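Aim 2 progress. For N-acylneuraminate cytidylyltransferase, the working sequence is reproduced below.
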Amino acid sequence: MTTPFPKILGLIPARKGSKGVPGKNMKLLDGKPLIQYTLEAAEQSELLDTILVSTDCSETTFFANCFAKTNAPFLRPAHLATERSPMIDVVVHALYYAEKHWGSFDYIVLLQPTAPLRAPGMIDAAIHDIIDKEADSLVSVRKIPDAFNPFWAYAFGENGLEKMVGDVAYQTITRRQELPPAYHRDGEIYIARTSLVREGLLTGGKIAAWLNDNAFGINIDTPADWGQAENLLQLWKEQTKSVFSC
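Predicted structure tokens for this construct:
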């Protein structure tokens, strides 16, 4: 008997307030609201059973509901829409709403609009990865450039300059080639079992890493990031135009 494929919820969180780039989710990037890039990527997925937008912005709600597969059925409560609101609380709120209206889900895929230039097919490939590895959560990561490797990082301490990482085995590394690889979260995709989310965790258990080699990755938090996204966009469009029009 064939095991049914897991039921998967896609969640796009789009809070109205932003100090770095005011109104950034609806701010036009090459003529399109920033959130549209993530909406289009989600709708291209063949594995997301339901796509839900969680926002406190009525303009974003109206815009998202114009997309064929996307649902923006509520305005997020005010206590979940501040800059201090934990993301896990937003995810739990959205999951409970989704399961009340569409039944239970096995995984939830978090897609932040601040990472607009995802590679085509990334969402479904990452979903297959977490399922194949039987992991509890998945995070997309990128390699930290050697110059910023934590084993070469320092902080000012009581005795002057001190190494951030104190492992004796790496104290004497002087050659770049000897550095152990280190990685950072890039914000493009998070996936978690819904059972983990109900425990108040977005990452935990067995964590799979999606090593992201997308050359056009950007996470927009500042005006400088926005400018970088504008510079990357034309090249990204040329690479992805055969998959979907931008």
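The chain has two domains: 8-142+184-240, 145-181. This observation will guide construct design in the next reporting period.
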